[in-house]
Specification:
The structure holds two protein chains of two kinds. Chain A is α+β, with helices and mostly antiparallel strands. Chain A has five helices and eleven strands; from the N terminus they run ααββββββααββαβββ. In chain B, strands 9, 10, 11, 12 and 13 form a five-stranded antiparallel β-sheet that branches. In chain B, a hairpin with a 2-residue loop joins strand 11 and strand 12. Classes of the chains: A alpha+beta, B alpha+beta. The interface between A and B is medium-sized, with 41 and 29 residues.
């Protein structure tokens, strides 16, 4: 976990040297200006438990301020919908649909909020859960999120979101276990 | 006063003092409301009363902190929870903080293969494990993957998830800053389960005081604290009633003293009037304490009301005293009527005394002993008040002529008959709404408190416990096995959409048989290792990733079974003790249902499937109905006994009717009037009606009594006017009370006595003639 954390911080530090310091608030207007967007993604999950990385593909859809849908199309069909405070996981391959109230699982709430609040340019919500650090320029930035709460950092060491102006291009999650996932995103704002 | 009389008085006072001294050291006042509930006739009712006394819902206190920003509220919530836990008064305190559930998590983790209903031999085959690993890979890639990751190597079959789904169903309160919050984010919510039952009002009052003190400390006294729950309300109502009854009885006593002082203008006479009522109280309470070992607080309060009749006895005596006549002589003249006045009350109360409800029986004996002692003490008043002590204003004698009643006498029977017929018709038309069916209203709470309770209950998702599926068994194991069969049936009903979900005792403690079957489903170490290796080969997971799983299963195969003792002291144990209860000789495992769409249909289906579905609301209504029916029967029996006594003593059915009819009419009109005012009748009204009958019969008896001359007629009217005035003053005060119980008694007696006095004056009195005309 410590290795992963220092890797995140180190990469952030590298970027910091490459570019002048950037305030997280400077990124928000461009992000908040997007009313809706659609994207395709490739996500790679690396874990000590796995023989080889798990790669999944699919689409993302967002509508301001708090509707987010991740539709995994390969290698199985799973639709994960964030709507207000509820997260619905509809796995069509298994025919199983479950709904969780994010309030009842605060850690899950923090993790979904990391994505939702960056996409919505909601600085206040981000700062509630994370220590923020921005690098780069408003046109090409990375935003590092370090969980404030101990019961979140027990699972997730840090999240790094990269983007270009109002678009998100990549989300990297470093788990406390050392597992990492990287989601590369091609976003088309509408 | 002769020496003999003085000796009798001294002996009487000595007896009273001895009784009072004995009471002072020995009297136990019960506060448990259940002695005022009938002995339960059916197993369902026994269970219902058990739930009321001991059940989780009735012991749960809902607490809300308001008046600060959310962060400060969350901190105060944590401090309050810690303080309450260390107070020792609560079995369980929850504020939503999951960190508090550490002991439970370890327990569930260790026993997951015994607790999870998904454990079957198939699950641990190569096929079963391969399917589980496919699902695990998807979960690992999902947003919840990070949360799942730490336990995945130990639990690839997902038993923790299975158990979590069962024990923490969706729809809890909302969380913010790690604790429960109200939907508007303005209040931090907690729930606390008292160790003491809801009806232990003293313990509940202590628990409420503890919460208030701890909340004041946690919030530095600045937070607003709202507390709701059946036990809390019982404690608050008792406090309100005690406070109000002190204030109101002080006012009422002053009014009575003022009325008596104006009537007698003699301090000695007024003081003498206190002797019968004091004697009645002391002797009555002593009799109950001796006979029952203790007296209930409510018996004491009602009993004091019923014995209040004895304050009238000396008034009849003193006012009937003719000029120059000794009080002994007066007593000899009116003695027969006074004796009958006492006896009618005794007979009415005797019906209660033989009731099978401990509370009503206590009330009956208290009244019998108290009224009899009051009657005897009235004779003492005759002994100690010297002749001429009472100087009634001569002009005053003529004043209360009940003139209107007299003038109306011609038309009155018709008017009264029509009114009584209308009242009877009205009561019959209202018969389905006449009675308060809600058992909760035996200790009625103000509307504002009810609304608070409902809001907090909805916010916290606390069970309302209306429908319960009951699995009975002679032994604990048998009950748990039935409960498991019921779970299977209920799961089917959930799929059919007939209910939203349920909780069950067997989820927290599976039967020994189920545990045995689950343990037997776990393969031996070599087989499991072989199956797992084959499954892992077909999965994206690395060989050896699930070594902790193999170790855990091997340990689970060697571990003993889970029993109630292992759960003791945890949240699971608290849940279990609420859902698995001793029931008479055997055990009952309870399954509270949520979101039932069609209660009666589900109950019928349950019966068909061989299960028992209890609708607690309906059961409690039936219980109250049965209670009311028995109380009414006793009431009717008492009235019949009084009628027989009157007919025998007056040696005339006609005279008995003349005495009884006005009082019966008054009671009937009283009930109709209360119904017209929108009141629903309860036990309190019924007991108050008993007093109306007792007091009203006194009026009727004295009016009906042969009058020697116009002067005596005037004295009779004055006596009844004074007695009615004191009664109306006392119960008029109670009408002003904020406490629903006191108000109900006040209204019933006030209207009833007014009607009884008016109707007795109009109809019980002899139409014409004096036994000694022209005197």
């Amino acid at each position: 976990m410590r290795v992963a954390l220092s890797a995140v911080l180190l990469s952030a530090a590298c970027c910091a040297r490459a570019a002048p310091p950037l305030a997280p608030a400077e990124l928000m207007p461009a992000l908040a200006a997007v009313a809706a967007s659609h994207a395709t993604f490739i996500e790679t999950k690396r874990s000590a438990l796995l023989k080889e990385p798990l790669v999944s593909r699919g689409t993302l859809a967002y509508r301001r301020p708090d509707s987010l849908e991740k539709h995994v199309t390969e290698p199985y069909d799973e639709r994960i919908v964030l709507d207000g405070g509820r997260l619905t996981v509809d796995n069509r391959t298994r025919g199983r649909k479950t709904t969780v109230s994010l309030a009842s699982v605060p850690q899950l709430g923090a993790l979904t909020e990391a994505v939702r609040a960056v996409r919505a340019g909601d600085l206040a919500a981000l700062e509630l859960y994370f220590e923020l650090r921005a690098e780069g320029t408003p046109e090409r930035w990375t935003l590092s999120l370090a969980p404030r709460a101990e019961d979140v950092s027990r699972y997730v060491a840090g999240i790094v979101v990269s983007g270009a102006a109002g678009r998100i291009t990549r989300i990297e999650v470093a788990e406390a276990s050392g597992d990492r996932s990287v989601m590369d995103i091609r976003e088309e704002p509408r | 006063m002769t020496r003999a009389r003085r000796a009798v008085l001294a002996a009487w006072l000595l007896v009273l003092a001895a009784c009072a001294a004995w009471l002072y050291t020995h009297l136990t006042v019960q506060t448990e409301m259940t002695v005022f509930l009938p002995p339960s006739a059916t197993p369902a009712q026994r269970l219902l009363l058990g739930q009321l006394r001991e059940g989780v819902a009735s012991r749960t206190m809902l607490i809300e902190l308001r008046g600060a920003d959310p962060v400060a509220l969350a901190r105060a919530s944590g401090e309050l929870a810690r303080a309450l836990r260390s107070s020792g008064l609560f079995a369980l305190v929850a504020n939503g903080d999951p960190a508090l559930l550490g002991a439970e998590r370890d327990l569930v983790l260790a026993h997951r293969y015994l607790l999870s209903p998904a454990v079957t031999a198939q699950r641990f085959s190569t096929e079963g494990l391969a399917a589980a690993l496919r699902e695990d890979a998807e979960l690992l890639a999902s947003p919840a993957g990070a949360l799942l990751r730490p336990t995945l190597p130990r639990d690839p079959t997902g038993e923790l998830r299975e158990i979590g789904r069962l024990l923490a169903p969706a729809g809890g309160p909302r969380l913010a800053h790690g604790v429960w919050f109200s939907r508007d984010d303005g209040g931090a919510l907690l729930s606390a389960q008292t160790r003491a039952p809801a009806f232990d009002v003293d313990a509940q009052a202590r628990a409420v005081a503890t919460v208030r003190a701890a909340a004041a400390q946690a919030g530095a006294g600045r937070l607003a604290v709202a507390i709701a729950g059946p036990g809390v309300f019982a404690a608050q109502m008792r406090e309100a009633i005690e406070r109000e009854s002190w204030r109101l009885s002080a006012i009422a006593s002053l009014l009575v003293l003022a009325i008596l002082a104006v009537a007698y203008r003699s301090a000695g006479a007024v003081a003498a009037c206190a002797l019968p009522v004091a004697s009645g109280l002391v002797v009555g309470v002593t009799a109950v304490a001796l006979g029952f070992g203790a007296i209930h607080g409510i018996t004491l309060a009602f009993g004091a009301t019923l014995i209040g009749e004895t304050v009238d006895y000396p008034s009849y005596l003193l006012i009937h005293n003719a000029p120059g006549e000794s009080l002994w002589r007066t007593l000899a003249r009116i003695g027969a009527t006074l004796r009958l006045a006492v006896l009618t009350t005794v007979f009415g109360a005797a019906a209660l005394a033989f009731s099978s409800f401990a509370g009503l029986a206590q009330l009956g004996w208290l009244t019998i002993a108290g009224v009899a002692a009051g009657g005897l003490a009235t004779a003492l008043v005759a002994a100690i008040v010297p002749p001429g002590a009472v100087r009634l204003k001569r002009s005053g004698l003529a004043a209360p002529r009940f003139a209107l009643a007299g003038r109306l006498r011609g038309a009155a029977p018709w008017i009264a008959a029509i009114l009584v017929a209308l009242a009877a018709a009205f009561i019959v038309s209202r018969r389905d709404r006449l009675w308060d069916e809600d058992l909760a209203n035996l200790s009625p709470i103000p509307e504002a408190a009810k609304a608070l309770d409902q809001r907090l209950r909805a916010e916290l998702g606390a069970p309302d416990l209306r429908y319960l599926l009951v699995a009975r068994g002679a032994e604990r194991e048998a009950a748990l096995e039935t409960s498991e069969a019921a779970e299977a049936w209920l799961t089917g009903r959930v799929t059919q959409g007939e209910l939203a979900g349920y909780d069950a005792a067997s989820r927290y403690l599976p039967s020994r048989r189920a545990q045995q079957a689950r343990r037997a489903a776990l393969p031996d170490e070599a087989t499991l290792a072989r199956n797992l290796a084959a499954a892992v080969r077909r999965s994206p997971f690395r060989e050896g990733a699930f070594a902790p799983f193999l170790a855990d299963v091997a340990r689970a195969r060697g571990r003993g079974f889970l029993d109630a003792e292992a759960l003791a002291g945890t949240a699971l144990g608290v849940k279990l003790s609420a859902l698995l209860v001793r029931d008479g000789e055997g055990w009952a495992a309870l399954a509270p249902l949520r979101g039932v769409t069609d209660g009666p249909r589900l109950a019928a289906e349950a019966r068909q499937a061989g299960f028992e579905l209890l609708d607690l609301k309906e059961e409690s209504n039936r219980l109250v109905g049965g209670y009311r029916a028995q109380s009414l029967r006793l009431f009717a029996l008492g009235v019949a006994a009084i009628a027989a006594l009157l007919a025998l003593s007056l040696r005339s059915v006609g005279r008995a009717l003349r005495v009884l009819a006005p009082v019966a009419a008054a009671a009937l009109l009283d009930v109709a009037l209360l119904a017209l005012l929108g009141r629903q009748l309860s036990l309190f009204n019924l007991v108050a009606l008993l007093l109306v009958v007792g007091v009203g019969l006194n009026y009727a008896l004295f009016f009906e009594r042969p009058q020697a001359d116009p002067a005596e007629g005037a004295r009779t009217r004055l006596a009844i006017a004074v007695c009615a005035a004191t009664t109306l003053a006392v119960f008029g005060c109670l009408m002003l009370s904020q406490a629903p119980v006191l108000r109900a008694i006040g209204e019933t007696v006030f209207f009833g006595c007014l009607l009884a006095a008016a109707l007795s004056a109009a109809f019980a009195g002899r139409a014409a003639g004096y036994t000694r005309p022209g005197a």
